[in-house]
Amino acid sequence: MKKLIAAAPRVAALVDYEDRAVADNEVKIKVVFGAPKHGTEVVDFRAASPFIDEDFNPQWQMFMPRDDNAPRGIEFGRFQLGNMVVGDIIEVGKNVTEYALGESVCTYGPLQNTVIVNGVNNYKLRKMPQGASWKNAICYDPAQFAMSGVRDAKVRVGDYVVVVGLGAVGQIAVQLAKKAGASIVIGIDPIAHRCDIARRHGADVCLNPLECDVGLEIKRLTGKQGADSIIESSGYADALQSALRGLAYGGIISYIAFAKPFQAGFNLGREAHFNNAKIVFSRASSEPNPDYPRWCRKRIEETCWELLMNGYLNCEDLIEPIVTFADSAEGYMKYVDRQPELSIKMGVTF
Fold first, then answer.
1. CB 12 within 8 A of CB 74
2. What mean pLDDT is predicted for residues 121-130?
3. Distances in Å between the alpha carbon of 167 and those of 90, 216, 217?
4. How do strand 104-108 and strand 126-127 relate by DSSP bridges?
5. What pLDDT is stored for residue 65 in this prediction?
6. What is the rounded CA–CA span in Å between residue 344 and residue 315?
7. Over 90: is that where the pLDDT of 77 sits?
8. Whose C-alpha in 100, 133, 245, 321 is 20 to 30 A from the C-alpha of 210?
9. CB atoms < 10 A from the CB of 105, how many?
10. Contact by Cβ (8 Å): 253, 230
11. Does position 61 have pLDDT exceeding 50, yes or no?
């Protein structure tokens, strides 16, 4: 059996592995479809993260031994790649009663032939309804952050909404904002193909930040008022600067992106103050979230799963290209790392 790993910085490889025994509380899944994460996982793949907490993603189990004064680092050769998988249960521990052999499920997991996960009271292990879209299922993770970002931005009926960065999170945020009743949804991205998809799924206008003054265009498109809510998923300093310029007085910027340090030149002065900007750092996975106790991570996950499975959200156009597992190492290096403009979310078929 094979699994996809980071063999070295920016080098993906398929390597052999053997499964351990399934514990009494676990199930084994034969993976049929999967997808990597195009955001924070890639930062680690490039060895670009200056500090990684071992709680950041404990499922990877990827950290090197260190002394108390040494920085943590990724142990390349053990660092597994992948975020979501869909497959069929082929083994069930004796204490598992909620799942049965042959059931199709979706869960967090690395890209490998089989995945073993807890099968007792595990709400992150989701049963796939008959006929449900696997492409929607593997967008379970980005959908949570998109929904949290839209909620934290306080999007309401009639609002002017801007979504910056039209990757998977941004694309889903566009759909959610439009379905929430926004009168104008403006997408911001330099990649024409991403803008085409966003327009098909709710964006009224898309702007290329390399070809126009985004802040000025937002004001023009909203009758000089500016955006009520801006959902920022790109992580670029100039994108946030443009958002501060295009924001309506007292508007909210919901900052989803996990940004790198900004260089000199970023300005929180004139327009940020004059627009009375409010910036909310939005994270679906942080507890308690702003609407706790009514909303918690579990409720966000359950709501997103329902919206994905009942077709309220449509992620079919977001999964491309689809590569075979045998070609996943080359696909990862090309579409996720080196030429990410060619893919919103790469799908993998086993």
1. no
2. 95
3. 34, 23, 21
4. antiparallel
5. 32
6. 11
7. no
8. 321
9. 20
10. yes
11. no
What are the tens digits of pLDDT across the range 28-59? 999 999 999 988 888 889 987 654 443 334 33
pLDDT at 67 > cutoff 50: no
d(CA 89, CA 242): 48
- Mean pLDDT, rounded, of the chain: 91
CA separation for the pair 317, 142 (Å, rounded): 14
Bridge partners, 2 (sequence order): 16
* Mean pLDDT for the stretch of residues 283-299: 88
Structure tokens at 111: 């890209």
Q: How many CA atoms lie within 13 A of 219 on its CB side?
A: 15
C-alpha to C-alpha distance for 195 and 65, rounded to whole angstroms = 44
In sequence order, the 6+-apart residues with CB closer than 8 A to the CB of 212 are: none
Handedness of CA 293, 298, 300, 306 (dihedral sign): negative
Q: How high is the pLDDT of residue 171?
A: 98
Q: Does residue 138 carry a pLDDT above 90?
A: yes
Distance separating alpha carbons of residues 14 and 64, to the nearest angstrom: 21
Q: What's residue 263's pLDDT?
A: 82
Question: What separation in angstroms does the CA of 56 have from each of 50, 60, 153, 212?
Answer: 13, 9, 25, 37
Q: Which amino acid belongs to residue 156?
A: R
- Rounded to two decimals, the pTM is 0.90
